[in-house]
């Protein structure tokens, strides 16, 4: 390594993470020599060949299409990938392992924000808050009063909540909904010894025992289209589904059919398959509350994210253990 | 009393409670001889003089303007008022006491639903869910993607929450928000020995120590316009206020000024002063989420309300203790 110890270390940013579109970009620029392929007219691979042959660290945003061999081949000096995201479905972690590239990720820093949004979407769907706000702001309340003109909502307390994926986010959701006197159960690959909630290995079985399904799992080969037609049927026409994980965990064509047909009662979706495309069939449905994959878009989480990315890069460049390793070098 | 034991007992309904606009009306009609002044062309007082001189029980809805001497004078046989509401600001309880009329009310049956809505409105305001739903459904997400076009939201976890009125609803709110790792404190007439949250006797002092104010108190002479300009100033321009109690607890003209000027960060209001009139100045504000005084409008709460009203009436007519007395006879 012939890196000049007096110049700031070089970091290639792929994606880029949304934090690079905020005031934090300047703070990154102050600490590192940041390579920004999105500002270059060169195609990415050519940019990497031209500018990044000695670059040892990459920051990768969740919106980056796929960091696999095709890209890694053009980053021969890479020693670490710091992902700004929790889900690593956009990074070929196995390939990084083979090449001896360490991977750091957002770990649990976003879990409270994602869990808060899951609960917020759930209350919004059950209690029809978004529709109510429009009802009031459009002047209908004032004109007609509420009598007879507003459908009754659904109570949250004491509902049976099935959590798909009881990792850090799932556990934060469970903790919150216990305080609403909900009955929690969960599905995951393995039973967790640290909790006493009823466990189901099968998503269909969990759905059959739940009024509400909340998806909190990672997207991978096992969870792709985990929520099938059969699972939705088991959830039933009084059931509600909340997704703060990844769109492709649900077979979205089936979900749209179930929502259109009133075969489930509602959905709160922060993520979609093929986002930002929104299936036109659900645009008019008041029992579907949508948000733009923004579960971590809070001032506080952006600050925490900045600090964790910088901390991981500082650790890497000073040969210290990564702060939030997903994969050790 | 010359009541015929074989005919169903007579009940005058004032208001009427919203439950009388649902399928429960028929169930009431099956059990009691319900007098419905709103279906008569007679003015109310004349209706009472004509039909209700021997009526011993009244059910009173929260929307009934005021049940005081002027009405009670025309109900000489009245022995009980069963209010469908929690707040009794629309009933002259002192006058009922003087006349030996018992008063039953909704007690705590609505507390979980009201607390759930308070938390839902709070997450909605902080995390901008209603605005986000419109952003997605109007096609802006699809057209522009989220980058740079969506303001960052505010994290809920670890915020300082001040609860005004730590009765049944306030305690349910506190229980829920503790699970979000919020720091709870409260203001009320008296310190509660049953909780260890910090207590403030003064609303301004509570606001100064809080990021979020949640109003859960009854409306009475002490709480009318409790939330003054000074309290809002103490809450500050990062502060958020949630009202699931009664509109007149806030000096609404001041609140509107503070919201317009960005001198507080947002509001979630299920109730307004002079509802259903909505101040036009707040209609366009995305940081204000409004709902039509519907905190108890769930299928489950309507069922519970029906059962409690019937239970109180049955108890009264069979000389048993009321199920949820506010004032004994």
Describe the structure.
- Chains A, B: InterPro entries: D-isomer_2-hydroxyacid_DH, D-isomer_2_OHA_DH_cat_dom, D-isomer_DH_NAD-bd, NAD(P)-bd_dom_sf.
- The structure is a homodimer of 329-residue chains.
- In chain A, strands 8-7-6-9-10-11-12 form a seven-stranded parallel sheet. In chain A, strands 2-1-3-4-5-13 form a six-stranded mixed sheet.
- The longest helix of chain A is centred in the C-terminal third of the chain and has 19 residues.
- In chain A, strand 6, helix 8 and strand 7 form a beta-alpha-beta unit.
- Chain A has twelve helices and 13 strands.
- With 329 residues, chain A is α/β, with parallel strands linked by helices.
- The first copy, chain A, folds into two domains: 128 residues, 3-Layer(aba) Sandwich (Rossmann fold), CATH 3.40.50.720; 180 residues, Rossmann fold, CATH 3.40.50.
- Chain A is globular and about 70 Å long.
- Helix content of chain A is 33%, strand content 15%.
- Chain A starts with 9 loop residues before the first strand and ends with a strand.
- The mean pLDDT of chain A is 95.
- Chains A and B meet through helix 5, helix 6, helix 8 and helix 12 of A and helix 5, helix 6, helix 8 and helix 12 of B.
């Amino acid at each position: 390594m012939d890196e000049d110890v007096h110049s700031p270390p070089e970091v290639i940013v792929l994606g880029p993470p949304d934090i690079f579109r905020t005031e934090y970009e300047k703070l990154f620029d102050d600490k590192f020599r940041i390579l920004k392929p999105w500002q270059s007219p060169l195609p990415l691979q050519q940019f990497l060949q031209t500018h990044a042959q000695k670059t040892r660290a990459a920051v990768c945003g969740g919106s980056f299409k796929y960091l696999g061999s095709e890209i890694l081949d053009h980053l021969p000096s890479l020693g670490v990938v710091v992902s700004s995201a929790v889900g690593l479905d956009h990074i070929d972690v196995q390939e990084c392992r083979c090449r001896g590239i360490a991977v750091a990720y957002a770990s649990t820093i976003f879990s409270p924000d994602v869990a808060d949004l899951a609960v917020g979407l759930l209350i919004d769907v059950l209690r029809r808050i978004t529709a109510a706000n429009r009802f009031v702001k459009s002047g209908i309340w004032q004109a007609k009063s509420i009598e007879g003109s507003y459908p009754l909502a659904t109570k949250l307390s004491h509902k049976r909540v099935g959590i798909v994926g009881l990792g850090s986010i799932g556990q934060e959701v469970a903790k919150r909904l216990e305080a609403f006197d909900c009955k929690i159960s969960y599905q995951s690959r393995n039973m967790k010894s640290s909790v006493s909630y009823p466990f189901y290995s099968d998503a269909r079985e969990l759905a059959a025992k739940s009024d509400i399904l909340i998806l909190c799992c990672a997207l991978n080969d096992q969870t792709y289209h985990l929520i099938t037609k059969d699972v939705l049927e088991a959830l039933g026409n009084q059931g509600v589904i909340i997704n703060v994980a990844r769109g492709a965990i649900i077979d979205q064509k089936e979900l749209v059919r179930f929502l259109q047909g009133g075969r489930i009662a509602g959905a709160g979706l922060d993520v979609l398959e093929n986002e930002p495309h929104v299936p036109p069939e659900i645009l008019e449905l008041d029992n579907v509350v949508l948000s733009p994959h923004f579960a971590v878009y809070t001032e506080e989480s952006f600050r925490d994210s900045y600090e964790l990315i910088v901390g991981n890069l500082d650790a890497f460049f000073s040969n210290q253990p990564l702060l939030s390793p997903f994969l050790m070098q």
